[in-house]
Amino acid sequence: MPSYFPWWVVVTHFLNLFFMLLLMRSGIEVLSAFPKLYWNDHCPPGREWARFSKKTFGADSRTPWSSLDEEESWSSVVALPGKKNLGLGRHWHFMTVQFWILTGLVYVVLVFTTGYWHYLIPTHWSIVPDSIRAVGTYLHFQIPQRISGEPFEPAQKLTYFLLIFVLAPFQIATGAAMSPTVLARFPWYGKLLGGKQGARSLHFLGLCAFAAFIVLHVFMVIVHNLPKEFVSIVLAGHGSRALALGVGLAGLFLILLFHVVITWFSLRYRRRTQRLLGLVVNPFEKVISRSLSSREHYSADDLSPYHRVNGYPPVGQDYDRMVADDFRNYRLTIGGLVENPTTLSLAELRKLGVTRQTVKHNCIQGWTAVAEWAGVPLAAVLDRVRPTAEARHIVFYAMDDKGLTEGEGRYGYFYGSIPMFLAYDSQTILALDMNGAPLPVEHGAPVRLRIETQLGFKMVKWIVGIEFVSDTDSIGMGMGGWREDQQFYANAAGI
Ligand SMILES: Nc1nc2c(c(=O)[nH]1)N[C@H]1C(S)=C(S)[C@@H](COP(=O)(O)O)O[C@H]1N2
Ligand SMILES: [Mo]
């Protein structure tokens, strides 16, 4: 027996369990932010195929609502860290996935270099009828025979094969198809998996498949002779049953303890968690964001009948007056580290040249919608104001004071920032029109940002000022944006 479970299998099996549980809990946190599943990227309210929330919202609702109202607060028992912490959940997910994939790669390399693949990869179709027979044997409360000279019976071998070589890559593929950068650069890839919502639904079903496997796997190990299997998978076959049981249970206990500690830490020290995990996640995001630019061109047929809104419009007389006179007295102030600070009316802004794009919006919560936006390329604005060599980020200030518009205990005017390189993407624009008409109030009138490789929260609406800065540490709470400051989202928003 020992030869069937070498030490590298023991170690990668444990690491896989360890990372999978982190991925599952943090994935559930991500789901809680938009607890609905669709097959269609228009995400029509009320038409989801699955909803894990009692709240319902309609496209024709009389009272305005914002997509953040759809978020649910889930228990930390199932979600990491739970309690409406999408930003931190995503951080855990994207930190873990890097190590999970690394473990998988090491495992697969060893599987092939050691010849272990023989035990896992069926080489003949007879595995299918053999597996069916094996299942039949189980249903007669008997254990089927192992394949001669191999560690597993046929159904077991086939299941492990599907898990390792189909389900795991499938989760990676559907996961990648949810990144706004990937979707903006390779729209065909999104389509391949049924769009972002298709990928999201499939990714969820993949989670269910993994969960079902774990339950079945544990049950089967118990049925097959738990103490003996424990010696194999915990001690690579070397040692007594008592020792294996002790070490195995200790390993499981450590995993549980780890989850309790990181959940508590994440909730208690949210800023520190955001920063620490960011050290691992942000460079990974940066590589993707920097190397891929947006190439989205949907057609008029693809426009979404209903485009969700996130964030309630500014309140107060100043904004109301602007709306009342069609923003004739609106001025956009652009300054900071530039050679040529300027103040522009809407007409002057338009004169810098208008482009249009039909693109898909990706909110961090998970919903999507397609619209046509027209506006001035940010690059044209940069040409006009000429940022100095010290300028490294662009900050966009908005007119909505969240303390007044939201009532969730958060406060301050909304703002966001982007690194300079995003400004040069040909689809980064200051949008003035949506679907052929001036921006509606709820979508950011009179000016909002569009950056197609990024998540929605980067696209500041109701912009009143733009500032070029060398760093964002001294703005707001110093995290680079209002949602980063107050909801602990990552500043890097390409994934
Ligand atoms: N000023 C401001 N801009 C904002 C927000 C906001 O609350 N205030 N929400 C952001 C988020 S999270 C998203 S998803 C998009 C939503 O854009 P939409 O309402 O036009 O769909 O706007 C972004 N820009
Ligand atoms: Mo969002």
Automatic annotation (TrEMBL):
Keywords (A to Z) from UniProt: Cell membrane, Membrane, Transmembrane, Transmembrane helix
Gene3D superfamilies from the UniProt entry: Oxidoreductase, molybdopterin-binding domain, Transmembrane di-heme cytochromes, Chain C
Main localization (coarse): membrane
Residue ranges crossing the lipid bilayer per the database entry: 6-24, 99-119, 160-183, 204-223, 243-267
UniProt superkingdom: Bacteria
Membrane topology, record value: Multi-pass membrane protein
GO biological process, one term: respiratory electron transport chain
Alphabetical list of Pfam families matching this protein: Ni_hydr_CYTB, Oxidored_molyb
All residue ranges annotated as the Oxidoreductase molybdopterin-binding domain in the record: 326-471
Domain Cytochrome b561 bacterial/Ni-hydrogenase, chain residue ranges per copy: 5-227
One GO cellular component term noted in the UniProt record for this chain: plasma membrane
GO MF assignments: electron transfer activity
Compartmental location: Cell membrane
InterPro entries in alphabetical order: Cyt_b561_bac/Ni-Hgenase (IPR011577), Di-haem_cyt_TM (IPR016174), OxRdtase_Mopterin-bd_dom (IPR000572), OxRdtase_Mopterin-bd_sf (IPR036374)
Identification of the protein by name: Molybdopterin-dependent oxidoreductase
Protein's organism: Antrihabitans cavernicola
Lineage of source species: Bacteria, Bacillati, Actinomycetota, Actinomycetes, Mycobacteriales
